[in-house]
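May I ask for whichever protein you like with its backbone structure tokens?
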Amino acid sequence: MKAKTALKLLVIEKLERELIRMEKPYRKNVGMVVFNFHGEVLVGERSNFPGSWQFPQGGIDEAEEPMTAALRELYEEVGIDSGKIVAEYPDWIPYDFPENLPLNRHLQKYRGQIQKWFLIHWNGEINDCKLDIHEREFETVRFIPIEKTLSTVVPFKKDVYYKIIEEFGPKIRTFLQEAKKKL
């Protein structure tokens, strides 16, 4: 009987935590898929999660437009200030933070993030990236095929990345085909 009562209490505690989490808002955020003339995309290895690679992303400041935030964050995170926005994902994409994720204090008041994504073409080389302009987000960066990002990102972002790849993969190919015709 004691075991049954203890189990019920655990279930109730978990439900209460979930209800509290569900009441929290999403943090507005932008994500940037930066691609080069080889059709590869830029990913960075997270400083706070070694082995986890992701696209640059960051918060939207109060009263800031998403496109402006994307260009600002791109510069702050990887030092790119010469990219060209090629496309914007049509919707905002939310994701929840896992319960066991160690969050910075300013992120603890959010349930997760809701993101607006941008596709950006950039002619630079990987050595042109500057990772210490602002708070260092990435240990290193590299270019990889867009399809490989699914195997490098943390599990709770995979659904977001799948949508981004499905939307932006064809746009990258079309952009590069059109650009090559102009050469």
Notes: The first strand starts at residue 26 and ends at 35. Residues 158-181 form the longest helix (24 residues). The chain has three helices and eight strands.
